[in-house]
Design a protein that fits this description.
The chain is an alpha+beta fold. It is about 25% helix and about 30% strand.
Amino acid sequence: MLTRRHLLAALALPFAPRTLWAASTLTMGQIQVDTLSDGNLVLPGDFILGGMPQDEIAQIVASYGLPTDQLTPPCNVTLMRDGTNTVLFDVGAGPDFQPSAGKLADALAAADLSPEDITHVVFTHGHPDHLWGLLDDFDEPVFTNAEYLIGQAEFNYWTDPNTVATIGEARTTFAIGAERRLSAIADALRFVSDGEEILPGIAARLTAGHTPGHMAYELSAGSESAMVVGDALGNHHVAFERPDWASGSDQDKELAAQTRLALLDQITAAQMRLIGFHLPGGGIGRAEKSGSGYRFIEE
């Protein structure tokens, strides 16, 4: 097993601002996994922390050196290469969500890849920071040579006309944006199911709650494995220390908490690495038991 932290920069001109494209790399047999930076989000703290016991949550978040009024989680797009397939897990936010995100094109270029090099795009779920990088300015797919894979339940939810009316006012744009993008690639989509080996060494794992059909993906090579968790584990602080607490970012809060607990139990029992979209240091690490909860250990 070879793991190493690395920071690579693309410099367009001398003294120009640097673009960090990868914060961590994991090698398992013939599989190489890199995390590509799509930038970061800027969120009001209560989007994640709302509804939690405020005195306790303030202590937990402060212990990580973070405020409670605003959070700026990183966005790590997972790239997997096995010598045959070049797979992206999610596609970032694109230019229409937040100005601090949507940097995946720069990350790919710095990694000497173009969108045409991607053979498969695998979606964890349909939220903007994971899906809205799908189309270009002309509403054409960015990844022209890719096959697209998503859970059937997730696709059905975002393309259901009733979703816009029922998702809540704060997320109406989520539903409108997801429906437009998924409809644009509907004819090129392959639907995946829980437990299915969708590609050699990649198995889908239903992790519902954050969204109705959220999927994680287990990467395996011989005796080694790692779980691409998407937003099933959406931060490195309260999601680990108190996975049982309901989070404002989840659409089904009770189910999402059950999913977090089960996923953390599975990952720690199997001593499996995990790769998180919003986890620090590029998102690759481990979960360890810590008191009554867990903690995220960067690698």
